[in-house]
Amino acid sequence: MLKKYQPLKEKAMYTRIKLTAWTMIIFCSLLAIMSLSNDSEITVPVQPTLEAPFYDSVYKTYGISAVQVSGNFVIKETHFVQRLLIPAQFLEFDILSCVLLIVLSTIILKLLPHIHSQALFKTDISHWIGYIGWALMLFWLLDTARIFFYAMPEIKRLTNNEFVFRRTGYLMFPLQFWLGIGILWVSRLYKNAFRLKQEQELTI
Q1: Are 2 and 118 in contact (CB under 8 A)?
Q2: Is 65 helix (H, G, I), strand (E, B) or coil?
Q3: Radius of gyration of the chain (CA)
Q4: Which residues touch 22 (CB under 8 Å, ≥6 apart)?
Q5: Cβ atoms of 71 and 46 closer than 8 Å
Q6: DSSP state of 116
Q7: Cα(158)–Cα(166) distance, integer angstroms
Q8: Burial 63-74 (b: 16+ CB within 10 A, else e)
Q9: How far is residue 13 CA from its own chain's centroid?
């Protein structure tokens, strides 16, 4: 718990983070339930497949620049597996992303009582910090798997092999994966710092 003598600015920051975490948990839980319980449409970014007759075709040119054929595929009536495994655009909703936010918000709520100035390094919370790193890496793995093993073949099937799911960022720079590794490294540093502080207190 926060001490009464803790600075007001730090208490205000603590309260804002806590409210934000609870808001994310409640909001994402409601959206997940609503999305899985109805056949709402999904908008998916697509591009022509290599076999499509209009692959690499130009929609319009601007001098030496050109706009190639790509777009969004709107699936009007979706079933449960599609809503669960096809990554939707951000403004609509993505169930896997919301699950990640719920997990991260829960971990943050666990960490909050131990990271203010009066409690830092008094409890070993390195495992909770590590959970954040593992959650991000697992999210990247599951997201990549659902794209390659479900979203891509499913979009090809629905469009008669003319379009495929468009997502290249995961191949070029897996941000969640490297961020997870970085947080695991921070977790290790915190554990070493905690042990060092404990040893210093024992020698006093």
Answers
A1: yes
A2: strand
A3: 23
A4: 105, 109
A5: yes
A6: S
A7: 14
A8: eeeeeeeeeebe
A9: 23
pLDDT in tens, the chain (204 residues): 445 545 667 777 888 889 999 999 999 999 888 877 777 778 888 888 877 777 667 776 777 777 776 778 888 888 888 888 888 765 556 788 889 999 999 999 998 888 776 667 778 888 999 999 999 999 999 988 998 899 889 989 998 888 888 875 555 567 888 999 999 999 999 898 888 888 777 776
User: Domains of the chain: which residue ranges?
Assistant: 21-198
Angle at 18 between CA 15 and CA 21, to 5 degrees: 150
Residue partners of 111: CB distance under 8 A and separation at least 6? 125, 128, 129
- The amino acid at 27: F
Encoded amino acid at 151, one letter: A
First to last CA, the chain: 26
Alpha helices per DSSP H over 57-173? 80-85, 95-111, 126-146, 152-158, 169-172
Q: What is the pTM of this model?
A: 0.78
